[in-house]
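NUDIX domain-containing protein
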Amino acid sequence: MKERFKTKSAVFLLLKMNDKILMQKRMNTGFYDGYYDLTVSGHIEEYESITDAMIREAKEECNLDITKEDIELFTVIHTSMYNDLYYFFYFVMEIEENKDYHIRVNEENKIEELKWFDLDKLPELLGEHNKIAINNYKKGIRLSEIGW
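Predicted structure tokens:
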């Protein structure tokens, strides 16, 4: 069996429709339980491109079939966590209202709900990295360094 999580990097997908974004409420993970997170997120496997990781995670977590043309990298966060340096790569995907994407949670034991939020009215329980990434998205900031 292939060992995962060998890299110190992760990808996140902001699913956007008009001025709303889809978020998931985490549970039973021991990490940010009860907090909202971007709908798709996960570690990059060894020798995997960031785009391929995003496509794989979208399929694994939400049964969402996407292509490279569907997503756009909008910001990168460079941070220090657990005495290691991490890079978080954030992508955005515009969802058309009239298209049926069949978004569903494939990790029912980890995700309590999926919910749409206005970009300007985000939930209070939102992790620091996601707050920064969403702010970067709204302001067009490409790179942030935090946690030093």
